[in-house]
Each structure stands twice: as C-alpha cells, then as structure tokens.
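Just curious: can you write whichever protein you like plus the matching structure tokens?

***
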Amino acid sequence: MIRRSSKWGVLILLVVGLACLQLGCGLVSRITPAASPPTVSPQPATDPTARPTPKPAASGVIIPALPGPGSAGQEAALLPDARQDLAGLAGIPSYTMAVDIDYAAGAFRGASRVSYTNQETVPLESLYFRLLPNAGKSYGGGSLEVTQVKVGGQPAGTRLSLSDTVLEVALAQPLEAGRTTLVEMAFSGEVPLDFGGESNPDGYGIYNLSQGVLALSGWYPILAVYDANGWNLDPVSAMGDSVYSDMAFYSVDVMASSDLVLATSGVLVEESGERRRFVSGPSRDFFMIMSPDFQVSSLDVGGVRLSSYSLPGHAGAGEVALAAAAGSLEVYNHRFGAYPYTELDIVEAPMRNASGVEYPGVFLVGSDLYTDPDQLSFTITTAHEVAHQWWYNLVGNDVFAEPWLDESLATYSSNIYLQETYGEDAYQGYASYWLDRVERLRADGEDDVVTRPLAYFESLENPAVYSAVTYNKGALFLKSLREEIGDQAFFAALQAYYAGHKYRITRTDDLLEAFETAAGRQLDDLYDEWLYSAHE
C-alpha cells in the first residue's frame, strides 16, 4: 500500500492496511479488552479459565452449501500451470459465503461457512476470527456484527475482545491435529459515508461509500493466524497493514443490483439476475469494490486478463494504469516467477491518506492520481501494487512483526520495472529519492533499524520515519545487495524465495538465507549495515 504526505513536498510511500471499526454486537458476548492487550495470545480473555457461552441463533439465516477445496471452481481462477498447486493445498481453510448488498444504504448482510483443518501439532480449544472493520483508523467508521455462530451445526460459545476486533469461537471438543471442523456464521455490516467524516481522520476509503464507489475490505470474519507462538491477535495499526492471514479458498455469492460493476478477488464463474458467484484460487483475503459508473478496459498478458476500472472522465488514465500494470506483470513474471491467477484488476477509488492499496488479484489506485496520469507517482503506485501480488499475497509475511519484508520488496520491485521499462536514469533517479529521504532522517537523528516491528514505529508517532525506513531504506538495502552479489545471484535468490515460499508465510531469515545461498557466501556485514543499524 502507498500513502502520501506533504512532508518535504514529495510523494511519500507508506504502508496503510486494513484496520477495524467500533460496533455493537447484540447477540455476541462481550468482554472488556485489557488496557495493553498481548500481541499474541492463545486465549485473550479477561478470565483465562472461563469458557465462552453459546448464544441464541438468529432466525431466518441461510448458509450456503460448501464446495470441496480444489474443485473445478477453484481451478477457474488459476492458470493451467498453476492448477497443479491445488493438490498441495487441500488442507487450507475454505470459505463459502453469501452476501446481500444494499448499495444505496452502504450496508450488507451475509453468511459464511468456514472449513478449518487443524494443521498444527497441538489440539485447539478455540478458533479466532478478526472483525477488521471495528476499530476505526483506516476504516474510518462503520461496523461488522456477527449475529450467529455454529460449530458442527450446534450453537457455539463466543467472546469479543480487543475493541470488538477479535471473536473467539469455542469448540465443544478440542480439535485434534489433522481434524476438520465447520464454522457457520451470520453477520452484517454498515459502511461509512465519505471516509467516516472528519471525526475519523484516519479513514482511507477501503471500507467506504464515496463518489458512487462502494469499497468492501474486511467485510467478513477472517481467521487469525496460528503459529508457534499461538494465535496472532495484534491490535490494528493506524499506519500499517493489519491483515495477517493464511491462504484460503473462497466461493462467494454476491446479491447486488445488476447495474453495479464489480471488481473482486477471484473470478466470476456464474451469474443469474442479481446473483453473481465468484471463486478464488489460494488467496489471503477476498475484497470487493463496486460502482454503477465504472468503465472497464481489458487486455491479455500471457493468459492473464488485466482489467482497468476507472470513473467517468478518467478513461485515458485508466489506459495508462492498464499499460503500467501489464508492463509490471511481464517484468515480475520474468524476474520473480509466474503470477498464477487468471485475472488482475486495477481499480480507481476515492481515497484519503492513501494512494494505493493491495488485495489478492485486485488493487486500488487513488482517484487523485487519475487527474494527472503522466506524473511518475501514478506509474510507481501501479507498479508497487502489482508487486504486492508476489510480496504479501503469494509470499506472505507477518505484517505486524516484519512489515519491511513485503514493503521493501514491493518498493524495490517497482524500481526494477522502471529500470527495465524506462532505463537506467529512471532507476537511479528513483533510488536517489530514497537516499534523499534516508539522509534527511539521519540529519534529523531519526534513522532507525529496518527490521523493527510495526508497533515500535507506531510508538514513535511519526509515520514519516516508518515509511522512510521500512520502504526507502529497505529498498536501498536491496539495491546495495544487488550491486554486491550481482544480477545473476540477486534474481536467482528472489526466484528461489518465491518458488520455495509461495502460498506460505515467511520470516526475514528466509529471505536473507536465499540471498546467501545464491551468492555462495555470508553477507552479514551488509545485513548489519542496512538492516540492523541506525546511523546518524
């Protein structure tokens, strides 16, 4: 994601991700969150010995049937060479959802069935879901309310915490390793109008109704990540990405007015009246955006259908975005490895505070940039967001603990695109901008360690430090590393990193080991200089 700031009078690249909104949940039990909740907790309850209690079911809820993972539906979202990957992904979660959207009201009601297989080595007593639009910040304002939860067809005990952004679902019996359970939910949401207004200054427009565009990010309860430390339940950040999730399959039925033009993760596989069904390949999230005013242009790049969605008066800018996305896709396919999906959508959206936001198979570019598509920031934003399909979605990382992993790579990747499309002067010019930002930090005594977690940067209360260190200094590290080990080893390392960790979650050591393996030597001095040191 890219955020703009007026500091130094230039475009500042900054991660801005999903956050949460405050809501009231009538049929889901509450707890009061601790003043300083733990970042990772297997059971974030006020009383760790208490068990959530079942709540009465809402009437009239219809939860759709669940297709099997790796079905023909999922194959439709993948290129032929990528379909072989499905066999190794049969155990990942599978979401089957139906949602009825009231576009004019900015509201929706939905239901989901989640097939979850315990792929850990320990039994699980509860599952945890994130209700991302419930804490304000980048969502602006609005709500996501869960009104019914069943596990295995029976009412399940639930508990809300962390400003209603964490929903614990108790299991009647511990879920043993390798066993599968079904979690059914009914939910509803209300989307803020015009970013949530001045009372919500952090709203980006990712969960929003503005200028005829309805954006639905984080519109459903999404599973939290379980790892060696337990369930990852970090507080939503005001300046960084807040979606940390495993790969999953999605099948989504959308009921919405037939005059609405939709762009989504996944692909459209069935349409009847106002009902449209979309399915995804392995994906970290499922995003939707819609407007009756979108105008669409498309082209084919190596079997991938690229589509550009622009608003009235911006058709020319939409073509520029489409060309930049197509060029980026070709460069990244060659340099990193093949993009596996059959579609990629570029969508113009009204945004505040942000210039671009990434989602699986689709990304947003702010409407402000469409007014002057010849400026370099328009091309850079597009190339950066395309790169996030590799670095964030296909190769995942903990955006709270190690935000630099995807953002530094996406930033440097966009300059690889500039270099191979516009030449060496463009490449060095953009790198000079990074260096200027970092040198300004050092002059102000604000340089910092690239690999620090998001919470640390948030504690500084200076987003400019976060963006300059995580994006620009991290990208300068990659530029210096490439110069040190040479192009052959550098790109061999990125290809090995992508191939070896596609659909998984990586750590910093995974990337650094890939570079040392490709270079055939240790690179500790370079790592210490750029990643683990702050200079004055």
